[in-house]
Amino acid sequence: MSGPLRICFLGDSFVQGIGDPAYRGWVGRVLTATATDITAFNLGIRRNTSDDVVARCWPEVTARTVPEADNRIVLSFGSNDMVEEDGRPRVDPTRTLANLTALLTESTRRGMSALVVGPPPVIDAGESHLRRTTRLAAEMSALCHARSVPFVEVTAALAADPVWVAEVRDGDGAHPGGAGYDRLAELVLDGGWQDWISGS
After folding, report:
1. Tens digits of residue pLDDT in 10-49
2. 111-122 mean pLDDT
3. For residues 104 and 118, what is the distance between their CA atoms, to the nearest angstrom?
4. Where do the domains of the chain lie, and which CATH numbers do they carry?
5. Which residues, 6+ apart, have CB-to-CB distance to 140 below 8 Å?
6. Residues 6+ positions from 104 with CB-CB distance below 8 Å
7. H-helix or E-strand containing 38?
8. N or C: which end of the chain has fewer CB within 10 A?
9. How many helices (H) and strands (E) does the chain have?
10. Whole-model pTM above 0.85?
């Protein structure tokens, strides 16, 4: 790590932390648990798909990076891509993977280290959505592995987590409360976050 650390978190409502009464989400919890001085920017937007993230990523990131800093990016999307509208996913999984490839290619070109967090499950969307999201997460993981980009698996773990599921069902059917975001933050922290922060 060279220079002050600046991280842009891009993605959907899970990145934004919708449903958390403390308005911290998993991003705030991960940052609180990180013993490193970080300038962080939460750029999550509700209902965003990977198409939306690709469209807005670099203008938003460029406005928040400085040449003397260690500029990095965290990406997390896919749950909205796999929601069915008119009998098909909002974004075809092949295009989701192409969008991720484009983002990682550009982050490499810019010299920005990237980390990808897998798509959380949308409980009220049912088993078919979970199957699509789980399959997409595996393909995203393989893509990241081939590029030596850390990928944090969360889909299956959260789908099987009773706290996550209970809070989502007590809420809006998609987003947990504080305890659910605690669990997601733990998965990120245990999934190689500190190694990525330290550059090892």
Report:
1. 999 999 999 999 999 999 999 999 989 999 999 999 999 9
2. 98
3. 14
4. 5-198 (3.40.50.1110)
5. 78, 96, 97, 100, 116, 118, 119, 151
6. 114, 116, 143, 144, 147, 149
7. strand 38-44
8. C
9. 9, 7
10. yes
